[in-house]
Amino acid sequence: FDAYAKRAHWAGLLLVRLNSGGGSVVASIMIAKAIRSSTRMRDTGIISVSEGDHCNSACVIVLAGGYRRTVGGSVGIHRPYFVGDEYLQMGYKDLQQAYDGLYEVLSALFKQWNLSRPLVDDLFAVPSTGVRILTDEELSAYGLNKDDWVLTEEYNANVRAACGEE
Fold first, then answer.
1. How far apart are the first and last CA of the chain?
2. pLDDT tens digits, one per residue of 48-62
3. Which of 38, 55, 81, 101 could form a Cys-Cys staple with 1, CB 3.0–4.6 A?
């Protein structure tokens, strides 16, 4: 994101608009980490699900990676699933270990990104063959439709330092 903005000579707001039914959970984690590591996204970036758009499945992980999140459309969650021939060959025990590992990775990332702890539990509770559309209250409780709370407090501290406590 930083390199793209620099090449484009763009100094303004950087908007990432999501409208996706999902995809690879591994790719979504990589995209979310790239967003999270971007100085431009931290300083002026917004992740948005616009009215009429949707962000389901793995897309939610990308949404979670944003520092500033706005949701006007729908967001749906379900348990991630693995694709590829190697997973067809796995037995129950190996698949259990793969899911345990994914659960731990998402739990650590969401904690690092200041999102609600129940998000991963609720995500894993929905079968991969369905989608649960989140209400505005659930989006807010998870932190998916608002700014990272640590970033907000950093901003508030800077305003207080510049303007005083009143």
1. 37
2. 999 999 999 999 999
3. 38
